[in-house]
Amino acid sequence: VSGENFDQSPLRRTFKSKVLAHYPQNIEWNPFDQDAVNMLCMPKGLSFRTQADNRDPQLHSFIITREDGSRTYGFVLTFYEEVTSKQICTAMQTLYQMHNAEQYSSVCASSSCSMDSLASSIDEGDATSLAKLQRYNSYDISRDTLYVSKCICLITPLPFMQACKKFLIQLYKAVTSQQPPPLPLESYIHNILYEVPLPPPGRSLKFYGVYEPIICQRPGPNELPLSDYPLREVFELLGLENLVQVFTCVLLEMQILLYSQ
Q1: Rounded distance, CA 98 to CA 92, Å?
Q2: Are residues 33 and 142 in the same domain?
Q3: Within-domain flag for 113
Q4: Domain count, the chain
Q5: What range defines the domain where residue 233 resides?
Q6: Are 243 and 234 in contact (CB under 8 A)?
Q7: pLDDT for 3
Q8: Share of the chain above pLDDT 90, in %
Q9: Residue at 72 is within a domain
Q10: Are 12 and 43 in contact (CB under 8 A)?
């Protein structure tokens, strides 16, 4: 467990994550920084869910900027897979028993009552809130299915966001599908790493993912730099007025800091 959020229920806490595997082991021009990639793939840490929680896959991106100013771009798909380890499920149940005991004690203390007279002394509001807490914020190993977050990440020299997003989604479908894909998963990964070249400047490239073809385009030398991020999301996140203000600040060469969770 990370050293924070102990007041929250175990399913709302964050846990320490780690890189399970990466391939290739290292590239001379792009050395693999395990700590940085681990932190940027799961900035909030490992998280658990049950069948009652939303477990839709989420996609985000990051940039690693080195001392010489060179950049590499990461594209991450986070999804939840079922926990098959009985040991982890049992540990989660134990964490909940400890958490519920602490909540039980704190509600009792706030009501100035002894453990034996809890039922008679606790007021109706506290009883209702405790019941809701235990019903909606609980884990029962015999009744619930436990899921844990997992990431697949693609690190590239250029920000081909849409192409990477499509490839990761197709790879995720292949991983979770009951029907295996036409070829082993390793062959698709080998293909995109070693057989799909960067498109020349000013050209488009079409390559095959797991299920469908994917197209990426690289601007020419006289065109604007590659910006594959959807502009619509910027408007949705910042709003029109804020975006106009940011654009004005850019034109006035002011320093801009965007702060986000």
Answers
A1: 10
A2: yes
A3: no
A4: 2
A5: 229-260
A6: yes
A7: 46
A8: 44
A9: yes
A10: no
